Structures are given as C-alpha cells and as structure tokens.
Amino acid sequence: MATIISNKVIKLTNKDVAVTHVDTLKGNHPIVGDRVIEGDGTSQDAWKNWSGLQDMPRFDIAKSFAPHQRVCIFAPHPDDEVLGCGGLLQQLAANGNPIVLIHVTNGTQSHPNSHVYSQEKLNVIRPQESIKALEVLSVAHQVMTIELNLTDGNVFAQQDQFHQKLSTIIQPNDILITPFMYDGHPDHEATGQVVVSFAKQHHLVCYQVLIWAWHWAKPADSRIPWHCAMRVDLTTEQLQRKIEAIACFESQITADDSTGNPPILSAQTIARISQPWEVYLYDSHL
Asked: What is the pTM of this model?
C-alpha cells in the first residue's frame, strides 16, 4: 500500500485535482471525503458477526467465468492483488483462466523519508514481493504481470495516461477486476474509477473488490452498494495460502527502524483481510 492518509491538516497539491475546499475539522480528505483510513478501523469481529455477510449471495467462479476467458486484475500497488483477491486468484487458476495482473504503480511512496526503503529500493522490492506471493498462491504460471509505472500517490492526476495505457492492454471479452471506486485510498479510488469507466465505454464485465473499505466502513454502511455485493468463499487451504502470500510483502509488514514508523499493514489490517471470504461488487447497469 502507499502511505495511509489521515485527517490531519492536508496541504493541497497538484495531485488533489479540482479541489477547492477541505473540511479537515470533520475528517474530510480532498479526494476520499469521509472514507478516511485512520486508527485501527472496524474490528475483524464486527465484520465476522454481521448477518449481511452471512446472507450475501455467493459468487461461484466456475459458473460465472468461462474457462480460458482472460481476467485482468488491477492492483494500485503491489500487494493489493493479494489483499483483495488472494482467494479469487487461486480459484481463477483452478478454473483455467489466464490472468493479467496490472500493477498501476510500484508503490514507491510507501515509506517516505526512510533510510531502509528508499524509492529506488521499493521500485525493485515491491514487484519482487508480488512475484513471491504469486508463487505461494501457486498461480504464478498463469499470471502475466504488467507494470504501468504511474506515480504512487498521484494516480488521480494521471487518469488520462492511465486510460490510454488500458487501450493497448485490454482485449475484447476481458473480465476486469479493480478496487472499489470508493475504497478510501486515493490511488484505489482513481484506479477503480478509470477501470470502471473504461469497462463501461467498451461494454466489458467489471467487478470491484473491497480492500480498504473494510477499515473505514461499518457493517451495513450506506456508502457501500451492498445490493451489488457477492461473496467468494475460500477453502481452508486457499485462506492459508493467502495468509502466507501476504507475509511475502515484508516491506509492508515490518516496522521501519529508520523512521520509527510501524508497519504499513498493521496486525489488525492483516487479520481483517485474512477472512475466509472476499467481497466483490457487480452492477450490470454500469
């Protein structure tokens, strides 16, 4: 993940596109508004005990995706593909689907001012961590990775460039999977909005996965279109592989001694994302 935002006073920069007012006192961010990632977030148990998850329609990959149909998964930063889709990736591989993993950025801004993880190091380390994670998931043989090399933390300002790159990558009949367009992280939201717009323009099937939404949202939160939600259930083995794959992102799960900052992915975040299910949104009207 890139740097987590907070509701501290934010100085507007060029990347905060078309923003004229920020209500920092109410915790509003110029891009994500009230979907702010701060503190420990909603607990793992709160989600686990929510009846809405239990009653949610199941998403059966074998019934929904034709074997050999290409699936393109968009990760704003290397690790999002596993945090959001670690179970889905395994089920797609078992179903025979070719997978294109698209790293929108290489996550080089995750450790500002670090003497351990410079931007140059992260540009190499984070894609390498992704490769290890895909091997742990036993899907590497079916995944082709493409790096778009957009600037971490600045995807909103590069939407036109992003859209142009998609025109050279996406094929007719591809299935697109992107973070939720209101996921709470600026790069996630920019990615979701560009991909959903592209899918709509080209009449492609597109699913949105919840990643950081699990942190800021609450059960039955009206900011999430739960009526479009489907649940992918993971087997015990699939969940275990996902947990082991998350552990491959060492740069994100270890503290930075040079800055004194805690891990980017806290224990609570990892626990919350390590559930025996993943949730995807699909709206046929988009």
From this structure: 0.90
The pLDDT tens digits of the residues spanning 46-98 come to 999 999 999 999 999 999 999 989 999 999 999 999 999 999 999 999 999 99
Q: How many CB atoms lie within 10 A of CB 89?
A: 31
Query: What Å distances lie between residue 74 and 21, 53, 120, 125, 169, CA to CA?
Result: 30, 24, 22, 19, 12
- Give the DSSP letter string of the chain: --PPP-SS-----TTSTT-----GGGT-BTTTBT----SS-S-HHHHHT-HHHHTSPB--HHHHS-TT--EEEEESSTTHHHHHHHHHHHHHHHHT--EEEEES---TTSSTT-SSS-HHHHHHHHHHHHHHHHHHTT-GGGEEEEE--PPTT-GGGGHHHHHHHHHHH--TT-EEEEE-TTSSSHHHHHHHHHHHHHHHHHT-EEEEE-STHHHH--TT-TTS-GGGEEEEEPPHHHHHHHHHHHTT-HHHHS-BTTTTBPPSS-HHHHHHH-SSEEEEE--TT-
Q: Can you give the residue ranges of every domain in the chain?
A: 44-59+70-281
Write down the CATH superfamily of domain 44-59+70-281.
Answer: LmbE-like (3.40.50.10320)
Within 10 Å of residue 275's Cβ, how many Cβ atoms? 18
Q: Evaluate the CA torsion angle 238, 100, 127, 10 in order and state its sign.
A: negative
Strands 99-103 and 205-209 turn out to be unpaired
